[in-house]
Amino acid sequence: MCVKLSAVLIQTILFLIINVSNISEAQDHRYARYFAQRNHRALQVPSHFKDTVSLKVYYESHCPGSVKFFKEQLAPSLERLGRHLDVHMIPYGHAKTDYENGRYTFECQHGDIECYGNMLHACAIEVAQNNTKAALFNACIMERTNDYNTLNYLVNSCGYQYNISANAIWETMNTGRAAILLKGYGDETHALRPRYVPYVVLDGAVADSVTTNHLGYFACRLLNPRLSACDTVIYRSNKFIMILKCLFSLLAISFAYSTYIDPGNNAIELYAHHNYESLQINKSGDKVDVRLYYECMCPYCIDFYTNTLTKTVEKLGAYIDLKTYPYGNAKRKEENGKTVIECQHGEDECYGNKLHACAIDLLKNTTRSVAYISCMMSGQWQDAGSNDKGANRCGKKMGINAKEIIKCAKGKKGEELLEYYGEETEKDVPDRDGVPWSLINGKYVNGELDKWLATICAALDQPPPQCKKM
Predict the structure, then answer these.
(1) Overall average pLDDT of the 54-76 stretch
(2) Cβ atoms within 10 A of the Cβ of 238, count?
C-alpha cells in the first residue's frame, strides 16, 4: 500500500507543480491551447491573444442551469470585462415554434412563463442595442418564478438599474414584434440543435463545464493586452494560495488512503484518490441499492440517464439492485374523484414517463430496460425521443415488441404505473430540490460517472475487478 501511495503522491505532486507553473504565468498560451484540445467539439481557438473575445449563449429564461450561468458567470464577467467580451444571446433553448392563424406561437420547456421570459429577453436585446447592457438586464430579470407580476416588476426595476427603457420593452411585446424576434432565435437554435442549455461557445469553441464555471478566467486567458480586471483575485491565480491548496489536497488524499483503503483489497484502487468523499457509505454485501428519480424530457435527466446511468449498468450492472422512477417533478391532484397528474414539461412528458414505466414493467430485465429507455431518450432532440416514434425505432433496433409497450402506455395500466411511481417518489424523496435525483444505499450522489462508480465500489464488501482502473 505504501509503495502505491508514494507513487500516487509523486504523480500528483508532479501534476500540480506543472499546472501551478502554467496557471501562474500571466502571458502563457497553454490554457488557450488546452481549452481547444480538451474538447473534441471545439471549432477554433485563436493561437494569439486579442482585444475582444466572442461569446455565444444558447439558453432559456427559466432553465436552472441558464439562470445560474447568467447570474454567477456571465453577469460578473461582463461587469469586469465590459466591451472586451462580445456576447451574443439566443434566448430560445428547447422550445418549439408553430404558426397558427397568422401568428407565431411557442411551446417552451418550462411552460408559458418561460416563453414570456424568452420574449422579454429578446425585446431587451433589441431595445438596448448594446449586448453588454442587455445581458446584464437579462441576468437581472432571470428568476425561476411562475408569477407574471414578479417578472413585470423586475423588468421595470432592472430597466431603471441598467438604463434600458421598460416602456420600449412593453411596446415591443405588445406590438407582436417579440414573437418575430423569438422565432428568429428559434431558427438560429434549430440550425445548431444544441442537446443541452446553456450551450456556450467561447471564441468559436464549445465550452465544457470547466470553462462555463470559470468563464471570466478563460476569457482573460485569450485577451491581449492584459486588462487590470484580469488581475483581480477572481481571474488571476495567486501562486502562494494555489500551493497551499495543493498541499491541503495532498493531505486529504493521504488521509483518504489511510482511512479507507484496506491493504489487502486493491479493488477500489480506481477511485480512492479521486473521489475519497464517496467512500463514506454503508457497506451492503454483494449488491448495492441504486435508485434514480427522473422525468423523460428534462435535459439534465436525459444527459444523466444516457451517460452516468447507462455506463454504470454496463460496468457494474451485476452488482447493483437498480430501481428507476419515471415521474420527476410531476404533481398529483384530485379532480372529480380522479387522480390527475401534471408533468413539468406537459402532457408529452407524462406520456413519455408512461412509456418508460411500461417498458420497465414489461421487459422484466433491468439491463435491457435501461438500454431501451436510454435509446429513446438519446433521440429526444430528433423528434424520436420518449414517444411512439422513439419507442418503435428503439424496439426495432433492439428486437423489442414496442407495440405492447405503447398499448400499455395508452391504457389504464400506464396510468396506474405512473401514479405508483408518483407515490413512491413523493414517499422516498419528499424534499428533493429537482431531478435527476439519485440515491446509492440511501445516500444522495451527484451525476458524475466517476462519483457513482466510486461509491458503488466502496459499498461492496468484495469489489469486483471492474472496480480497478478502467
Answers:
(1) 93
(2) 12
Predicted TM-score of the model (pTM):
0.51
CATH topology of domain 271-467: Glutaredoxin (3.40.30)
Residue with cell string 422512477: 325
* Partners of 443 in beta bridges: 440
Say whether domain 27-231 belongs to CATH 3.30.70.890: no
Residues 242-290 pLDDT 10s: 455 455 545 544 444 443 333 333 333 444 334 434 456 888 778 999 9
Which residues does 170 contact at the CB level (< 8 Å), separation at least 6?
A: 155
Domains 27-231 and 271-467 share a fold: yes
Q: Which residue has the cell 374523484?
A: 337
What is d(CA 115, CA 106) in angstroms, rounded to the nearest whole number?
Answer: 7
